[in-house]
Amino acid sequence: MSDATAKKEERRKFQAIRGTRDLLPPETASWNRVEQIAHEVFATFGYGDIRLPILEATDLFARAVGGETDIVSKEMYTFEDSEVAELVDLRAAAVTYTASLADETGLINFSNLVGNFTLAAETAFQIGRIPKTPENQNLLQSLRDLLGTIQNYRYQGDRELFPRAAQIRDAIRRVTFGDVISLRPEATASVCRAYIEHNMQQLPQPVKLYYMGPMFRRERPQKGRYRQFYQIGAEILGGTDAPGIDAEVIEMLMTFFDKCGLQGATLYINSIGHNADNCRRGYVANLKAALEKVKDKLGPDSQRRIDTNPLRVLDSKLESEQAIIATLPHIADHLCDDCKAHYAAVKRQLELRGVLYQENWRLVRGLDYYMRTTFEITAPGLGSQNAVCGGGRYDGLVELLGGPPTKGIGFAIGEDRLILSLQESGKAQAQQGRDVYIAWMGERAYAAAIRAAKDLRNAGFSVELPPVEQKFGKALGQADKLSAKYALILGDNEVSEGLWTIKTLSTGEQAKFPEPDLLEFLRQQKKVSS
Ligand code: HAM
């Protein structure tokens, strides 16, 4: 490295990775407040806190959320969790070898590279440093066989040589060195995995769980859309699919938003039925036929979705497609009798609970596991990313992941968006200033100040105790900057007299108290102001 490059490296400024950000005070006070409200409200509905890993097997999401969804096919942070760096190098050397194989030296070099890789991989397989899966075993066996065949092609131009070399490269690429894992893009799949793993079906049903924490999706960052974002979610698993459950989950959610002070939130609901010919499958066939007729008027994304996932066309935000989408058939007209009755009962149950809703027949959601009830909540001040919560019913997901047949429903709130909306409406929590700033001067006063700080903090007051002596004027200026409510003034006089001075900074009023009365005075003041 040249000196200049080294200097440049030294000066490099590190910044948070695109789509991620630091959450700083005072904003974090709002985050803590909404999380506290979630803990309290969800507990009143009987939900328990579940803490889940951030890393999970990639297959879990592929199976649960769906391999064809945007989340799984494009947006996951995925890597091979391997401890075999040397194999990674040997693999790279073999698959990127570019010299001509028609040349004898080229062929020998290539065979050696493949041989080195195969031998090292076989050893790693035997001692369990790479996964002992049947796939790996088969790949290593075929590499051995292919290696034997190409070593025999010691003359130019064999027609078999190039296809065999291609097969070798392909096999080398497919040997797995570790588990393929992903940063979680959502947590419903993890909750279902945990339900199965810990045999929660043996607990009294239903099991009610909630979680909060970061999720990761490699989306194009914009206002309200991040690559690391935070969700607060809840899931209810097992028991029945009684419509009262759907309605109560939504009621809990609206109670939470209400306690947070979120204004102008709108709840949209829909039912997407279940996967049967006389229900959603029939509707999708119908929708597909209708879409084929208007295909020319749709954009390229929607055109592609006619084949891959016609329901997702209903999600389109493209202005030019809106009038066309409005003419498409509605799912409500194609629900089977049971799903229709379930949907009607969910709406009645919401009304019983005084929860206002709007129906939105286009609400199909972007994850594959949903059936019947789906819902979304939008909030003002968020621009195009205005969904602050999404959720729905997912009976059958636990079974799909290898567990017993289990009912399920839940939601996840986008915490970043919730905070953004609260900030826009002026409802976000400002960081509280200090209660007391202790302005002390002199050794004896410092000792008294340390004692006072300890007592006040124990009583729950936030206290700033400057570590170095300051003139009173400067100390009061500092107290002001920290938005302290009171300054406790401790000089040698106060300590000798045993009478402490407390100054109310908003009014400038001053009063003197014997040390033991100070705490009581502050307690009384707190009561008055709260
Ligand atoms: P989702 O609709 O993918 O559902 O996400 C739920 C919420 O997370 C969204 O409404 C939004 O507020 C927030 N969100 C999603 N992506 C981002 C992002 N890139 N940046 C900021 N916020 C984002 C789920 O995740 C399901 N697991 C919900 C669920 C739980 N369904 C049943 N149970």
Describe the structure.
Helices cover 45% and strands 17% of the residues. With 530 residues, it is an alpha+beta fold. It starts with a helix and ends with a helix. The strands form three sheets. It has an eight-stranded mixed beta sheet, sandwiched between helices. Strands 13-12-14-15-16 form a five-stranded mixed beta sheet, with helices on both faces.
Question: Which labels suit this protein?
Answer:
single chain; 530 residues; alpha+beta; 5-stranded mixed β-sheet; 20 helices; 16 strands; 45% helix; binds histidyl-adenosine monophosphate
Radius of gyration from CA coordinates? 32 Å
Distance between the termini: 62 Å
Could you say which small molecules are bound to this protein?
A: histidyl-adenosine monophosphate
Shape: globular
Mean pLDDT: 93
β-strand number: 16
Spans of 5+ residues with little confidence (pLDDT < 50)? none
Largest sheet: 8 strands, mixed
Please outline the helices and strands.
Elements: H1 3-11, H2 27-44, E1 48-49, E2 55-57, H3 58-66, H4 70-74, E3 78-82, H5 85-95, H6 104-126, H7 134-152, H8 161-174, E4 178-183, H9 188-197, E5 207-216, E6 228-237, H10 243-260, E7 266-271, H11 280-294, H12 300-308, H13 322-325, H14 337-352, E8 358-359, E9 371-378, E10 387-393, H15 397-400, E11 408-414, H16 415-424, E12 436-440, H17 443-458, E13 463-464, H18 472-481, E14 486-490, H19 492-497, E15 499-504, E16 510-514, H20 515-529
Helix pairs in contact: 2-10, 5-6, 6-7, 7-8, 10-14
Residues 186, 188, 217, 219, 224-226, 229, 231, 233, 235, 367, 387-392, 410-412, 414, 416-417 line the site of histidyl-adenosine monophosphate.
